[in-house]
Amino acid sequence: MSEAKRPRLAVWKFASCDGCQLSLLDCEDELLTLARTVEIANFPEASSAITEGPYDLSLVEGSITTAHDAGRIIKVREQSRHLVTIGACATAGGIQALRNFADVNDFISAVYASPQYISTLATSTPISAHVAVDYELRGCPINKDQLIEVISAFIAGRKPAVAAHSVCVECKRRGTVCVMVQGTPCLGPVTHAGCGAICPAYRRGCYGCYGPMETPNLASLAQQWRALGENPREIRRALQTFNAATEPFRKESEAHAD
Amino acid sequence: MPDETASVQTATAPPSKAMKAVISCDALQALIAALAADYLVLGPTVRDGAIVYEEISDLSQLPAGWKDKQDAGKYRLERREDDAIFGFAVGPHSWKRFLHPPVETLWTGRRDNDGFSIAPAAGEPRKFAFIGVRSCELHAIAIQDKVFIGSPYADVGYRARRQDAFIVAVNCAEAGGTCFCASMETGPEAKNGFDLVLTELLGEARHDFLVDVGSDAGAALLGRLPHRSASDADVAAKAAIIAQTRARMGRALETDGIKELLQSSPNHQRWDDVAARCLTCGNCTMVCPTCFCTTVEDHSDLTGNTAERVRKWDSCFTLDFSYIHGGSVRETGSSRYRQWITHKLANWIDQFGTSGCVGCGRCITWCPLGIDITEEAAAIRANPMTAAGGQHEGT
Predict the structure, then answer these.
(1) Less CB within 10 Å around the terminal CB: N or C of chain A?
(2) Which residue of B76, B92, B276 is in closest CB contact with A178?
(3) Is the Cβ of A145 closer than 8 Å to some Cβ of chain B?
(4) Considering only CB atoms, which chain A residues are within 8 Å of B299?
(5) What is the mean pLDDT of residues A155-168?
């Protein structure tokens, strides 16, 4: 591939912890190949050498929590041929979307010594609530193999091979014994695959980091959690984490009061 | 079936397919060691609170003294009061994961000066020896044989793994809480499809195994082990164990006319009832020893110079499974559960000549919600579709 034809890559940060961008830097085996295959044109987390747009592929991490960012994402979209969101913040609003369930001013006054300096929106919203998104990669954080798959797919002009079924399929493929059938509440049956089913492999229930799977039946799962002895408060808290603002998790979590 | 009179052969006669022998626990260890010279030996072992199938090299790795307590959506290991090695039913794994692996690279393609070249998946598969295959599992393997190598378009990978496999079966002395092989006529007695079959004979003064021979390879291996001819009492003990297991099935499934029953119930109201519970997670299909569906993923690397085709277990409970241009054919949970059970218990008969269900009970035990195929089939039967009843609005 000639130098002139290398696709131009940009990586953007909004409200987030930077963990998903770090997943890209964690691709140690692929990083040199990536740097040869694409021009890393704008990636402040990795390099201060920033060149102007337009960009062929923008990876966007983080959610929209300020008026400033709501304006900035529109400019990112304008400069990007393809825009892919990476991680739970960018695709679902992230853990910071817990503010959507309460009054953000209460959080501000509880957390900051000088709340008058804080200028923020009442909600945390995913990128897709503001601009058109070409692809959403789930996870908190994202899986680096899936990230390479998505980048490779966009370079090749093909569909990424990323499944939207439950975590259970990944558990069974790797031979993990189901923790839920052994009595441990697990969100795996309603959670989007992609992590490789890490938690159940270590005998813990799934935390739902990848958000809802394609056809989640939250009401049925919550009923089974009750049968396993979980109380409504625990069910609500389990659903109100990194993907709390996704419609299936939000709706079911609000059905379980203290 | 072996001739009953053969049981009085002397131990000095060379073992034949008609022979019934008795071996000790030490001889079972010798059997594992002998197989390990030529095979990857796989057998039941305790891991993560369950009995799973993994590589074993020693008798001590088998789950002696354990039993499994199973019910719909529930599985617990408990200690037995004796040291039975095979005193459990079946666990979450089936032999499918070795003969039809969950993830398999089919080929790799590389761009080169002449265009591109295609290389088959790397590495020769190791020969498998399975220890402790149950009758329902032998039937499941026979069903997958039909699927993968029963037509002119054979799956070459499966055929190689299957042809090389050495199977040591075990007659079940315990029926699990979700077992119903007696209903499906697939057990509990292993009748064919094995090289050797063991029946564990456990009493106050004995712990040994009656061995029936199912192949020349099995006879040859038995000949290398210390053994004696089985007595009439040993043979009677085996029959008593099988009769007792048959009488203790945790579940039953009425199979009379089930093909017509399900095929005439596409709009039964029960499908919505089960869909309210069903998580569409796919666990039932993953643990089923006969479910064979796969998806194929094509990957290209960053440089675009290498591509590979990977086959993975798939499930009729995913949206992608029925995706055609414009969307998925089976959007609802009711349509997906209906597809699975109707294929398994009815359409399979049209397609392959047998039921797709062997009554192992895994789909019942390992459903996180405990949805029970025997209960759902019974509910359809209890309220068959007529012009007046059983209808719903469709899916």
Answers:
(1) C
(2) B92
(3) no
(4) 149, 152, 161
(5) 96
Separation of alpha carbons A55 and A194, rounded Å: 27
A30–B47 CB contact, under 8 Å: no
Model pLDDT, residue A5:
79
- Copy the structure tokens of residue B363: 């789909």
Chain B contact probe: residue of A147, A181, A226 with most B CBs at under 10 A: A181
What digits encode the pLDDT tens for the residues A72-109? 999 999 999 999 999 999 999 999 999 999 999 999 99
Q: How far is B119 from B137, CA to CA, in rounded Å?
A: 34
Q: What's the token pair of residue B86?
A: 């095979």
Contact A95, A124 (CB under 8 A): no
Contacts of A181 in chain B (CB under 8 A): 73-75, 365-368
Question: What is the dihedral sign for C-alpha A33, A34, A37, A43?
Answer: negative
DSSP state letter for A62: S
Per-residue pLDDT of chain B (395 residues; tens, 9 = 90+): 444 444 434 445 566 777 899 999 999 999 999 999 999 999 999 999 999 999 999 999 999 999 999 999 999 999 999 999 999 999 999 999 999 999 999 999 999 998 999 998 776 678 999 999 999 999 999 999 999 999 899 999 999 999 999 999 999 999 999 999 999 999 999 999 999 999 999 998 899 999 999 999 999 999 999 999 999 999 999 999 999 999 999 999 999 999 999 999 999 999 999 999 999 999 999 999 999 999 999 999 999 999 999 999 999 999 999 999 999 999 999 999 999 999 999 999 999 999 999 999 999 999 999 999 999 999 999 998 764 445 554 44
Cα→Cα distances B84→A9, A88, B60, B191, Å: 62, 49, 12, 22
The region that residue A203 occupies, defined by phi over 0 for left and psi between -120 and 50 for alpha, beta otherwise, is left
Rounded to 5°, angle at Cα A198 from A196 and A200: 120
Name residues whose C-beta falls within 8 Å of residue A202's C-beta, 6 or more positions apart in sequence: none
Chain A 198-217, CB below 8 Å of chain B: which residues?
203, 213-217
> Could you tell me which chain A residue has the CA closest to the CA of B46?
A177
CB pairs under 8 A between A and B: 134
Rounded CA separation B395/B174 (Å): 41
Q: Where are the domains of chain B?
A: 19-247, 258-386
d(CA B306, CA A21): 26
Q: What's the CA gap between A30 and A152, in Å, rounded? A: 11
Return the structure tokens found at A177.
Answer: 């014994």
DSSP tag of B189: S
3-state SS assignment for residue B158: helix
Q: Which residues of A touch B282 (CB under 8 A)?
A: 165-166, 168-169, 172
User: How many angstroms from the chain centroid is the CA of residue B96?
Assistant: 6
Query: How close B202 comes to chain A (CA, Å)?
Result: 29
pLDDT in tens, B166-221: 999 999 999 999 999 999 999 999 999 999 999 999 998 899 999 999 999 999 99
Tell me the pTM.
0.94
Cβ contact B51:B63 at 8 Å: yes
